[in-house]
Amino acid sequence: MDGGAALEFRLDPASGVPTSQQLVQQVEHALRLGYLKPGDRLPKVRDAVASLAINPNTVLKAYRELELKGLTEGRPGQGTFIKATLNRVGLPELTKLRRSLLGWVSDADTVGLDADGMAALFASVVRDFAERRSGGAVAEGSERVA
Amino acid sequence: MDGGAALEFRLDPASGVPTSQQLVQQVEHALRLGYLKPGDRLPKVRDAVASLAINPNTVLKAYRELELKGLTEGRPGQGTFIKATLNRVGLPELTKLRRSLLGWVSDADTVGLDADGMAALFASVVRDFAERRSGGAVAEGSERVA
DNA sequence: AATCCTGTCCTATGGAGATAGATCAGGATG
DNA sequence: CATCCTGATCTATCTCCATAGGACAGGATT
């Protein structure tokens, strides 16, 4: 029985981020965006191992970290389940944000910006925004150059 | 003399990304966004070492990788200089995209989405967009979970 | 020429992440 | 009860990353 939906893990070897951390971050992302709710089941350790071709210990390490954070709960014989949520934003708002972001991505794509470029711009803008709100006076430019 | 502008490196220890790779990625980002152009000088190895409190070999490793990619050129006695560009999008378009993205970030912030949540949404949307264009039939949501 | 500043190379060392493989423990099912 | 599936644990090993510290090479400046 496969009662609940399960997250499907992905790996990006080029990112340089340790495998176990990628798993942790993916669960956290899914929680933030409401794709996972308390009670949902995470992929079985052995399934993740098989589909990602990684070591059981790596998955265990990720699950252990999630449990330490209080986000999940491992139940031997049953699986690993979501215990808490990180979702502080309503679904309607998220949908709206998603839709408008999709428009932006589409524009960027039209102009010729690739995914890496989009990510670079996004990171730059978010950092900019954060610094502007806290620092106020951005003494030495953020993405600036000098 | 400081003829040319220089990028200012940052480190994010929490990201899990190896230090040297962070440096490489920052240069690439700056190239994509037009913050760095051919002829610009990168921070001196010893300066980066001092400001980031890391090992010279770590900086060297990053610079060597950039040179291998054909993006930079190290000139003993002078410094390391940008040799190529990754910028395929015009500055006006980038500025426009940046401005509209800033608006989106502001909206997201208003609704209560934090930086991590924004990053999660962004990654999800970009992936979604990429899959939709290649795969075609992604019946129901991509960010779904399956 | 002498000096300084720059990038470059080298060896050795320690730590974190991932792997392999075996084993134990808790719950469900026959 | 016996069996199966699940997560959890353990030890040993391997690789990559970063560090420490010393030394060399090319160009500019005096």
Key structural traits:
two-stranded antiparallel ribbon; DNA-binding; Arc Repressor Mutant, subunit A; globular; homodimer; mainly alpha; 5% strand; 146 residues
Structure report:
2 copies of one chain form a homodimer. The first copy, chain A, has 146 residues and is mainly alpha-helical. Chain A has 2 domains: 19-82, Arc Repressor Mutant, subunit A (Orthogonal Bundle); 91-133, no CATH class. Helices cover 52% and strands 5% of the residues of chain A. The first copy, chain A, contains 5 helices and 2 strands, in the order αααββαα. In chain A, strands 1-2 form a two-stranded antiparallel ribbon. The structure holds a DNA duplex (30 and 30 nucleotides).
Topology, please?
Two copies of one chain form a homodimer.
Chain A lengths: L18 H14 L12 H8 L3 H13 L3 E4 L3 E4 L8 H21 L3 H20 L12
Antiparallel strand pairs in A: 1-2
Helix pairs in contact in A: 1-3
The structure holds a DNA duplex (30 and 30 nucleotides).
